[in-house]
Amino acid sequence: MEEVWRQETATVRDVMTALNNGEPKPRAYTTVMTIMDRLHTKGLLDRRPGPSNSYVYTPRLSRDQYADVRAQAEVDALVSEWGDVALVPF
Questions:
Q1: Which of 37, 43, 67, 69 is the most buried (most CB within 10 A)?
Q2: Alpha carbons 27 and 19: distance in angstroms, whole number
Q3: What is the pTM of this model?
Q4: What residues form DSSP beta bridges with 56?
Q5: How far is residue 2 from each of residues 19, 70, 90, measured CA to CA in Å?
Q6: How many other CB atoms are there within 10 angstroms of residue 88's CB atom?
């Protein structure tokens, strides 16, 4: 996600190239593709057809929006498990 946020729009190859820059053990194209597909399935990335039978991905949420969504999910999980008692420290 960090790399897609940085680039704003990116293909799997763009992300793979950026992640592998200077790394002693490069990540495989298929590994990056699988992760980006899963992020798309979870609704974190949009994708549209791109060049050479690839997809171009864009983030659905900004970093700040994502942080807000994650924080709310954590609070909801605490309240779901512990009830109102979980909110007392806040």
A1: 37
A2: 8
A3: 0.80
A4: 48
A5: 10, 15, 30
A6: 7
